[in-house]
Specification:
The protein is α+β, with helices and mostly antiparallel strands. It is built from 12 helices and 14 strands. A hairpin with a 6-residue loop joins β12 and β13.
Length: 430
């Protein structure tokens, strides 16, 4: 009698395994679009394409297909067997009504059909189980590779990478933060981030990732508290809070596209304001702190004078005469406009002859504050030499030191907005 029963135990086991795997893989795969597989295949190659969600989608599709085949085959076998059994029962009842004995066959047609299908399903199920065991092994290998790859990714922390160089601007007590400058201090080239990764290959083309990285930097935002966008009041020693935001992005997807672990998004950190220069308010402080700078400016002006007039009959320094040095403080918008340092000197050429001439020269340092160094003099381009110190308003020239001073006081050298209060510094040429 046992031979007449379809072998369903193996089928049920196989169906249970297939169903569980199908549900798990389908749920996991449902988080991602199937097109991702082809995009990753084209962008990164087969190994990365056959990892993560694309892999579970493939297994989910195969699992569902085998499940449907099994369900359909089992339904057909059961339906055929039931139909045949009903037919045999009807024949038995008719024989009984005629007083005849009805002998049940050893195997019904339905049982034969069921047994035949059972054999097919048994083979199919065993093959299916073997395929899935192999598939799980393959999946484990690829998932292992993916996990290893993720572990080897470089981590880029957008908060820890903040460098405030050139971002803190203004003066002590009038400082502000240029938020847009913070991003400029981050690595512009993604290769600089990849170099810390075991996955980095010098020969690989990272142009696609570079394009994404460039756009990422454009959209990355830093918010500063307290807000100084409407005017700065920061001073050295103040504490500010910096928060990194990335609106409109899915960070997990971005990490996959860049093959980088991004950290610090949405996080904040505190920093202490430092390095803000201060403006000088009196001549004594300038003389005390910038005596060497003024001396270097004097030597620079003297050298330029020699270069300018070396073709004259008296190209010596004896006729180089220092006149005055001034701390120039702007009359307008003094909180934001920088101060300047102005040195005025003149050279008498061929004195006592018919070719006698006086040439007025200036050395103009802008901006001038506590940050200036003596070495800045050699890099200073803001100076004029010769007897033609032009004024931008009407292109008049001032050939005497007192006229140059008047031009700076009235704002004629540049514009009225840069008119200065002139504080004379009691410096004497050595």
């Amino acid at each position: 009698m046992n031979d007449n029963k379809p072998k369903t135990k193996t089928h049920k086991t196989g169906f249970g395994i297939v169903t569980i795997i199908s549900v798990v893989f389908t749920v996991l795969g449902g988080f991602n679009d199937a097109a991702e597989f082809w995009e990753r295949l084209d962008a990164y190659g087969i190994r990365q394409a056959l990892s993560g969600s694309a892999l579970v989608l493939i297994f989910a599709a195969v699992a569902v297909l085998f499940s449907l085949v099994y369900l359909f085959s089992a339904w057909r076998a059961k339906r055929s067997d039931r139909k045949q059994m009903l037919n045999l029962v009807r024949q038995a009842e008719e024989a009984k009504a005629r007083g005849e004995e009805f002998v049940m066959p050893d195997k019904t047609v339905g049982s034969k059909v069921g047994s035949a299908l059972s054999a097919v399903l048994d083979t199919l199920t065993k093959t299916l189980i073997a395929v899935f065991i192999l598939g799980l092994i393959v999946a484990a290998v690829f998932i292992g590779l993916k996990v290893t790859e993720i572990q080897n990714r470089p981590t880029f922390n957008v908060i820890e990478a903040v460098d405030m160089t050139d971002c803190v601007k203004g003066y002590d007590g009038l400082g502000y933060i240029d938020e847009t400058r913070i991003v400029y201090n981050l690595p512009e080239d993604i290769i600089e981030v990849y170099k810390d990764s075991k996955n980095y290959k010098k020969t690989k083309d990272y142009s696609d990732q570079q394009e994404i990285w460039t756009q990422f930097l454009r959209d990355l935002e830093y918010k500063i508290e307290p807000d100084t966008s409407q005017g700065g009041t920061l001073k050295n020693g103040d504490t500010i809070t910096i928060t990194a935001t990335l609106p409109g992005y899915s960070v997990p997807n971005l990490q996959g596209e860049l093959n980088i672990e991004l950290a610090g998004i949405g996080e904040s950190k505190e920093m202490t304001v430092s390095g803000l220069p201060y403006k000088y308010t009196d001549a004594a402080t300038v003389l005390n702190e910038q005596h060497d700078f003024i001396g270097a400016a004097y030597e620079k002006l003297k050298l330029e004078s020699y270069k300018e007039f070396k073709n004259f009959q008296t190209p010596d320094y004896s006729s180089f005469i220092f006149d005055a040095v001034y701390l120039c403080k702007p009359k307008y918008n003094e909180d934001t406009n920088p101060d300047a340092l102005l040195m005025i000197a003149h050279t008498d050429v061929d004195p006592g002859t018919e070719y006698a001439n006086t040439h007025t020269m200036v050395f103009y340092s802008y901006p001038f504050d506590s940050n200036v160094k003596t070495s800045d003099v050699e890099n200073e381009n803001e100076y004029s030499t010769g007897d033609e110190v032009y004024v931008s308003v009407d292109f008049r020239k001032y050939t005497t030191p007192d006229k140059v001073k008047e031009a700076f006081e009235a704002g004629l050298y540049f514009s009225a907005s840069t008119a200065y209060d002139m504080i004379e510094i009691p410096w004497e040429a050595q």
